[in-house]
């Protein structure tokens, strides 16, 4: 038995023809688009954070997209964006309305617009340009090529496009852009093995190379141990183990990640602070923490930036890389994370320089580059704060 389809006038907007969606989109007010690279003001007597050399080690591919780029792509494709993608300040959302489900819907909406090689190249290029504006010297961007493979002929072309543009953008911007291939917890572990083998083919340390293998998406999904074979493949190829853990779930989950995946860095890891013995163990083993304060607040892990346990990690001696995670969705880039460390947690310029050095040490760049960048941090700290004030 077949049903009579609804008339076009009664269909939900997502089922309208593209031309109708496009027209409807242009009837609506132009969404307010935040400019994420606007620098925070530099307080009197402080040094400009834009000129502090730093490494950005936790940035997702789609989440790195500029809001204006998202709007332009949606307009071109006739897609009406969910209002909360651009029209709300994420940190103004009530704590009980935050969470993973809302975040994932937004991420999926943005990722669905990435449908061509040109768009993929644009995301990498603009991310590198934005990092340069904020003083980053190294970017390690995380990508799951599976998500973009249908539009460019497979996972291998998808990864090669990202790597090629990373190398070109590095030459043009001066930011060393390397890539982390990340499997997803919501896909089968055999898919992770396929990605690990692909990542191994492009392993290296410099710009345009794969430097690590990650595991992202909802921490609460899947069995961590089921991905151990994929990470073993990656490690045998010289790739660093860089899984997510310790944000949505607590210390027991971190123990499982450590036991099964032997991380060199832990994506987030902030909830390790709930178990001081575990925290001490990871620090002693040299595991670094990719701390993304705005992400923690946006996902409802902590009520506000003041509750993010950055000071606890610092006081414990952890190696920390402040990161922005998904600026497109959280409306907050790397520079804002350093500004929060300064303005919310009261960190001095010397403490911020230590954080920047920590991010450099935690990166997967070669030792000569690390030494050169750390020397520039020393120069930043030795400079007169008066020379950093806006005219």
Describe the fold and architecture.
The structure is a single chain. With 391 residues, this protein is α/β, with parallel strands linked by helices. It has a single domain, classed as Alpha-Beta Barrel (TIM Barrel). The chain has 16 helices and eight strands. The protein has helices at residues 18-27, 67-77, 100-111, 117-133, 149-152, 155-173, 189-200, 228-236, 251-261, 276-284, 293-298, 310-316, 327-330, 334-343, 349-362, 367-382, and strands at 54-60, 136-143, 176-184, 210-216, 240-245, 265-268, 288-291, 320-322. Helix 10 links the parallel strand 6 (265-268) and strand 7 (288-291). The longest helix has 19 residues, at 155-173. GO terms for molecular function: deaminase activity; hydrolase activity, acting on carbon-nitrogen (but not peptide) bonds, in cyclic amidines; metal ion binding. Its EC number is 3.5.4.4.
